[in-house]
Amino acid sequence: MKACIKTENGKVEMMDIPIPEPGSGEIVVKMSMCTVCGSDMHFLDEFANEMLAFAFPGCVRPEGLPMGHEAVGTVHAVGEGVKKFAEGERVISSCLIGCGVCHECVSVDHSQCSGGGRVLFGCQAEYYTIPFADQNTTKVPDSVSDEHAILASDIMSTGFGAIERGEARLGSSVAIFAQGPVGLMATAGARALGCGLIIGVDTMDDRLEVSKKFGANVTINAKDEDAVTKIMALTGGGVDVAVEAVGTQATFEAATRAVRRGGVVSSVGVYGLTPQLSMPTMAPSFLHRKVVTTLCPSGADRMEYLVRLLEYGDLNLEPLFTHKMKLDEMGKAYDLFRDKTDGVLKIAITP
Ligand SMILES: [Zn+2]
Ligand SMILES: [Zn+2]
After folding, report:
1. Which of 35, 3, 13, 14 is nearest to 324 (CA)?
2. Sorting pLDDT into bands at 50, 70 and 90, what band is 82?
3. Given 278, 293, 308, which residue is the final one in a domain?
4. CA-CA distance, 18 to 146, in Å (whole number)?
5. 299 CA from centroid of ligand 2 (Å)
6. What CA–CA distance (Å, rounded) separates 252 from 266?
7. Are 149 and 168 part of one and the same domain?
8. Other C-beta atoms lying within 10 Å of the C-beta of residue 101
């Protein structure tokens, strides 16, 4: 089968490798659509394969790292002990796999698994393996599109999770710093939940246009004006929830300054190799605020809730997919995603 493999930092190659066989508790899925994500860029450009082999035992092949963790497809083969799935069923898995039985899976979230969980590598291929399938996978009804299903596997869960974990409620004021794919999902999540004033902040005008489509009432181009000053003027003292959705010191700091007394800073950006974040301690940005960080809420139960929301919740998140490509074009897809040109947000990649 064809698979996208990272051979060295910054470089992927399409390779012919054997179709995987499912081990105990695993299913093998025939991919119908996959995509590139900001996290893929961190794995591709920042972390050497040797380091990833240490962090994710068993995931790096001799030829390199099988790329991709966001995909949808149909079950091709079912391993011993899997109870919930049969061949031919359309499924998604959360992009972070949990064992389902450790303390973190049971009490915290599958994304924090300490019992063998990991990133679901290898989805940018004709076939991929889902470990702990019963604990992380859900069926997808025909009425939910491939595009929507893929979003549930990662960035919808992350972006909507930023709003949920930020304790936003009906009527809350929310500012979202950065309107890339995850930030736009936070904007859509805030609107879906019934928040009041939603403010989208970015430095790219085309992304701010999409932000309005996804529910922002006000957009601010941080290149043209100071976002915090404008948010303070609009809200008379800050927003209830300020979301950081890209992973930089500047946006994190802006979020801490834009949140009202007693409000929540909700951080879902991936800081990659950024070794440390700082928060201003001068009032009013520090005193009596809550800071919450979220990775990507994961596991079968989370997937079921998101799929139900996509099935019945009257959401249209498909405008996030700005480009279509074929699996053979993964190198081009990564270049486009890295360069952020041509208005790219998400790329629908089919076999
Ligand atoms: Zn992702
Ligand atoms: Zn676990």
Report:
1. 35
2. very high
3. 293
4. 25
5. 10
6. 9
7. no
8. 12
Name the residue with tokens 């000053």.
229
Ligand 1 centroid, distance to 181 Cα (angstroms): 10
Amino acid residing at 46 = E
Q: Judging by DSSP bridges, how do beta strands 259-267 and 239-244 pair with one another? A: parallel
Which tens digits make up the pLDDT trace of 199-255? Answer: 999 999 999 999 999 999 999 999 999 999 999 999 999 999 999 999 999 999 999
Total number of domains constituting the chain: 2
Predicted confidence at residue 274, as pLDDT, reads 86
Expressed in angstroms and rounded, the spacing between residue 152 Cα and the centre of ligand 2 is 20
Helices (H), 240-328: 249-258, 300-312
Cα(154) to centroid(ligand 2), Å: 18
Segment 68-86 mean pLDDT: 98
Output the pLDDT for position 273.
Answer: 81
**Pair (277, 317) in one structural domain:** no
Domain holding 98, by residue range, is 2-154+297-350
Q: How many residues does the chain have?
A: 351
0.85 exceeded by pTM: yes
Mark whether 344 and 325 lie in a shared domain: yes
> CATH number for the domain including 14?
3.90.180.10
CA of 78 to the centre of ligand 2 (A): 21
